[in-house]
Give the backbone structure.
Amino acid sequence: MTKRQTLGFIIVVTVLFAASVGFNVWRETARSNKPSGSPIAKDLKAVPITAQGVVGCQEPKGKSGSQVVNCPIGLKTDDGKIYALNDSLGTPTQGSILKGKKVRVSGTVTHPQTNYKSDGTILVQTINAL
């Protein structure tokens, strides 16, 4: 091979490599921006939500049916979704007197921010017993 052919080969390989990397980055970005089962898409920070369901302990990921002492409080909605509940300071709400009661919660929902099973985390603005 001549120097010219070698240089041409290196340029072609570099362009193909850059195109491959660019395609994979685009594909991963497109995949992560698709909406999940929760009402928020991956590219959104927070979305307003009003949901109703029963307040109870959140279940740890990977541990079906297990309960934790002083568990984080969650909301299991009428359609089966589970949301972590955080108060206005963004800290997990624990020991709520509403545990076991049906409530309506309004606030904003974000991606799960917990080590417990969750379809999202609701930053609670209002919570009312039904």
